[in-house]
Amino acid sequence: MRSPRRTARTQRCLAVISVVSVVSVAVVSERSHAARNGTIRGRVELRRVPQPTERRPNVNDLGSAGPRDVPDLLRSVVYLESAPRGAFDAPEGGRAVMDQRNETFVPHLLAITTGTTVDFPNSDKFYHNVFSLSKPKRFDLGRYAAGESKRVVFDRPGIIRVFCEIHSHMNAYILVFNHPYFAVSDDEGRYHLDNVPPGTYNVIAWHEGDSSEPRPVTVPDAGAADLDFSIR
Amino acid sequence: MTVWTRLLVGLAVLGCPVAARAQALPTGPIEFGDGRVTVSGDVSVGYGSNDTGAYFNYTDYDHSALRLFRIDLSAAAKANDHLSLLAEIRTENIDYLEPYALYARIRPWTSRPLDIDIGRIPPIFGGFARRSYPNDNPLIGYPLAYQYLTSLRPDSLPASADELLRRRGLGWLDRFSIGNQTPEHGVPLVSAFSYDTGLAVHAGSDKDGGISGGVAVTTGTVSNPRVTDDNSGRQWAGRVQVRPLFGLVIGSSASWGPWVTNGASQAAVGASNSSRFTQSAWGTDVEYSRDQYVLRAETILSAWRLPILSAPTLPASLWAFSTSLEGRYKIAPGLYAAARFDHLTFSEVTGSTVTLPWDAPVTRFEAGPGISLQRNLLLKLSYQHNARDGGPLIQHNNQGAFQLVYWF
Lengths: 232, 408
Hints:
- The complex is a heterodimer.
- Chain A is mainly β.
- Chain A has three helices and 19 strands.
- The longest helix of chain A is centred in the N-terminal third of the chain and has 12 residues, at 4-15.
- By secondary structure, chain B is mainly β.
- In chain B, 9% of the residues lie in helices and 47% in strands.
- Chain B has helices at residues 3-14, 18-23, 144-147, 161-166, 262-269; strands at 30-32, 37-48, 69-78, 83-92, 98-106, 114-121, 156-157, 178-179, 196-203, 210-218, 235-245, 248-258, 278-290, 293-304, 318-332, 335-346, 348-350, 355-357, 362-374, 377-388, 396-407.
- In chain B, strand 19 and strand 20 (377-388) form a beta hairpin.
- Chain B is globular and about 65 Å long.
- Chains A and B meet through strand 9 of A and strand 2, strand 3, strand 4, strand 5 and strand 9 of B.
């Protein structure tokens, strides 16, 4: 089950990025003006492996529901709590895809920058209805057929929970940052946060609504800093 | 504790600040046993203007559908890939806790979409039966065919056409001179609130297009689902559903089974063999959805055969025909508007002095918005107009209601 308190904390963290970070890291940024960027790398350990949301046992249904895919719940997002100056220059509106495939959003976790357009194709032979009631972006794409796609532009930073109105077990996360200093881990928790200007930063790991405490790390000139997390 | 005290307790449970409290509650099904047991629930609190004196919204559980505090808990326990147990317990206005569904689902071949349900099973008849939970119903009221109580009872029978015509519009509390003399409610065309007991076989998948359907043999009938049999035969019911286009679902249902109880049959014709006195029903339902709207239409024709006793005699069958049109349009994320038009009419019966429909025809219009306070917390508002053409009760009323629905 989600922890609303932690989710709210994470949302606050994301929301204040644009206000706090320019001030807090300005000195670091100036010092690193001529320096070469480095990497933060490490692993996010999940102390408790999350279980996918099961279908609701609707006893009214005639017959069993068929098999479905299981979402990938092992990935986390690692991001800088405070980003270097210049990070908030209007990012280019990129493009990303969140597919609806065999009653699962693929990927389950998407991290993007503000201005990114996300396509939501329907790859199933039946209807889905993607929607979100999250404050940073409320949308409802309605029902559309297999092979069709609808898109949403995410123009505000924050955490967006995505659901299907028809299949209540389908859910996903979209994390929208107004800077590019974030990375999604792989299935084993490994991450690489590249192209970070040298300096000292606070870094946070986020997973399924839970986030770690901010941890300081110093990125060397053209080097790599190791930082592991353990959450939940 | 009165109904209203219970409703206030219910409101307090969900109460203000509604969203804040609901955030601390589960947002999805609860799992046990390594995911083998899944429990979900629906809680709805409804409050509407007074229906007493008109009884348009009374259900076969003697509650107004507009003033209902209902808790449903559903559970599925998966023994293996071939066998699951499904159950639902429900309470309305905290009167009593009752298992509404309790059945085993057997899937003989895991790779083929064929299931056998045994026990107290969900109704196979009709389209609305699959979405009678408050969360699935865009409005607060129910379609007339599934809720409105006609004057017929399986255990209490009119001796003549005159007696039947005198009871027009009194289905909420009714009795006739043959059989059980205790006043009780009549039956709807199809009960949306009770499950029948028996065996059903379903084949096909709703998800892959094409045809799906099933047949069921049960102890009761669609208007009077039962746990134990009270007459001499079983009901047969079937449903076929096709999806010719993406978003278009067309369903057709039929049922037939003895309906009059052995006791009433014995009292009427002196024989306990009630197999001649049946309910037959036919239904057609269509749903089309696209983008932000869903449109539904459903018609049900029901025929009850009663013993023909003294003059003026009843016809061989008493017919009822219902039409329901429903639409929902999503105006914005978390906000929709819905409306439903219903009409229920009855075949004519000739008494000593008049020829009239055997029960008073009813027309209902209901409309209102639904507002998602959060994903699994929905506030519905509703305006409902009812009109009944005949009978001694109030013939027209306008009702307002709200309903708060929480589900996990």
